[in-house]
Structure to design on (226 residues):
């Protein structure tokens, strides 16, 4: 059974600081996804990582994937209040055959 | 208009009632999914379908059923709703042709069972 663990599950940080959210998964996969969810809203796709060593950046967010370590990171640089949201990682174990398995999410609050 | 549309967006019902949540998409994607979101638990897969004739159970299918009426429509039914089915339900699609596995979500249907 695939397990996806995120940590931390809750993070409060100040604007301007850097931080990293970690996503570990339990079985072999080389496809990992990051989503953002604002309160009461849908999930918005942030990054699609499809191979070992993949790194993608968008603004102050950068995601990477190490399939050997079964680890992905979402790094936030110089955080701003608008990045406050819940961030989910999700893993595709069988090339889309079974949908995605999600972590529990990291609730991020960025304070001015 | 949203590419993945869910109706109703909010519904309050009573224990034992039959409820149907509907999903339609204009993205032309083959694959459709129903997920359930509970606070602190992330999203869990209920059912998924790769085409009209293909329906598969997900992690938490007990108490639910689905119907894929057309490539663009995928409905989720609760035959006899119970309070622990109170949750936020999401429909999602993905494109088998592009094969990235990326999911595209609807706006969600919030269901409360009293």
């Amino acid at each position: 059974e695939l397990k996806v663990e995120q940590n931390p599950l809750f993070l409060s940080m100040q604007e301007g600081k850097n931080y990293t959210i970690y996503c570990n998964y339990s079985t072999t996969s080389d496809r990992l996804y990051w989503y953002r969810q604002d309160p009461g809203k849908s999930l918005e796709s942030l990054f699609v990582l499809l191979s070992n060593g993949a790194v993608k950046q968008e603004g102050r967010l950068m995601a990477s994937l190490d399939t050997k370590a079964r680890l992905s990171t979402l790094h936030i640089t110089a955080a701003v209040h608008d990045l406050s949201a819940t961030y989910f990682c999700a893993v595709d174990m069988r090339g889309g055959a079974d949908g995605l398995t999600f972590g529990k999410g990291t609730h991020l609050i960025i304070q001015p | 208009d949203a590419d993945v549309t869910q109706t109703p967006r909010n519904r309050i019902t009573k224990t034992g009632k039959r409820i149907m949540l509907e999903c339609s998409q204009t993205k032309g994607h083959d694959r459709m999914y129903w997920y359930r979101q509970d606070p602190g638990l992330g999203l869990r897969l209920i059912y998924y379908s790769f085409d009209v004739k293909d329906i598969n159970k997900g992690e938490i299918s007990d108490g639910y059923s689905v119907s894929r009426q057309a490539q663009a429509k995928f409905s989720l039914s609760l035959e006899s709703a119970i309070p622990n089915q109170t949750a936020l339900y999401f429909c999602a699609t993905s494109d088998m042709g592009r094969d990235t596995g990326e999911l595209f979500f609807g706006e969600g249907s919030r269901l409360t069972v009293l």
Notes: Chain B touches chain A through 26 residues (CB under 8 Å). Chain B is about 0% helix and 55% strand. The mean pLDDT of chain B is 94.
